[in-house]
Design brief:
By secondary structure, this protein is mainly α. The protein has helices spanning about 1-10, 15-25. It starts with a helix and ends with a helix.
Length: about 25
């Protein structure tokens, strides 16, 4: 799953992606 990668790379570059991933994960 991509959202897992986002969590690992919770950098400012993936900040937005992390939010999206979390929403999709929900």
């Amino acid at each position: 799953m991509k959202w897992r990668s986002c969590i690992v790379f919770s950098h400012w570059e993936c900040i937005f992606d992390t939010l999206v991933c979390m929403f999709t994960a929900k």
